Amino acid sequence: MTEVERRIMAQSPKTEDSSPATALDGTALGNEAYVSAKVFDLEVRKIFRATWMLAGFAHEVPDAGDILPATIGGIPMILVRGRDGEIRAFHNVCIHRGMPLADKPCRKQAFITCPYHLWSYDLEGRVRSRPHFFGGGQHDISENGRDDVRLEAIRCDSWYDLVFVNLDGRAEPLADFLSPLADRLSHYDLNSLNWSHDVDYDIASNWKLIAENHIDALHIFGVHPALNKFADQATRPCTEAFGQLFFGCYSFSDPEEGRGLGMPHFPGLSAKASQEAPWFYLFPNVMGQIYPDQLLIIQLIPESYERTRERLQFYFVGDAAHDDAFEEGRRQAFKTFTDVLAEDIPVCEALQRGRASEGFTGGVLSPFWDKATFELAERVRERLG
């Protein structure tokens, strides 16, 4: 174990006046986990490339021949919709000389073509044409594609609209990875959803701080006054940890525009579920929130130890995703979440700046509210250890 890994793994001891009633044994992660390029490199190798990562969305490659560049764990890749309807992932590099194959989304391409020497591959990654490969005018052409000469594939699987990749190919089946979340959302008919729109944020914060903030149910009363008015802190539960899944669900008495009012609800919801709002975080890069009429998925794309891209995808039930009759409802839902993000992002960026202080050594954690924060730190320690 390197010195960096030892420092990440170390937990600060309880202070003398700590007790089971006031603090948890151990702490969250110390500063180095958030401000070190070496730690981030470890996370790339031992977390991002070693588990399932949300790489993109099926609606971004709706038709055969659609190509979407993405970068996960520092690895450039492309998501490609094949003629058989399957979405595949390949390393975004021609096997001839290492030229990137695509630098922007492409629609309905017959082939994947390298812009350097014009090698072309079919949508399953097999080489179809290598112009002048054996000399001037001596082309290598394979009508059906050559299985022995093909793009390097990346393990890829989908769940509803979400497309996941596993770079090292050794993770458990995606269904097993997702089962704790799928079980808890089983009463929501996710097949009834349609994608509506998206928005991106570039945040000057470590990805873990954004995840920690998402599962921190205690900050609502101090940071989100409108959300606290909708569901008071005194009635709000904490986030619970279930392995790689962090999950919570609060209840509300009266829906409001943007949160369950004026839009079609999931079909078959019980009266109880129609007044509930689950939130979740699937380690390491999927966050979400559900109301009776919508789903928000947030994809975290860690780009460095101090910068994270956040992609929000909005889904609504049936025609509500695009029908003009529900335009105001969509606008209210969009405003609801972007208002919350406008309050959260400065907090996450301030937390990042705070990690420069030697006065913080991992925190003194609430035994009720901070259990999930501690467990998230444990997931990181387990992976890096």
What does this structure look like?
With 385 residues, the protein is an alpha+beta fold. It has 2 domains: 53-156, Rieske Iron-sulfur Protein; 175-384, Naphthalene 1,2-dioxygenase Alpha Subunit, Chain A, domain 1 (Alpha-Beta Complex), CATH 3.90.380.10. The chain contains 9 helices and 19 strands. Strands 11-19-18-17-16-13-12 form a 7-stranded antiparallel beta sheet, with helices on both faces. Strands 1-10-9-4-3-2 form a 6-stranded antiparallel beta sheet, with no helix packed on it. It has a 4-stranded antiparallel beta sheet with strand order 5-6-7-8, with no helix packed on it. Strand 9 (153-159) and strand 10 (162-166) form a beta hairpin. Residues 9-23 have low confidence and may be disordered.
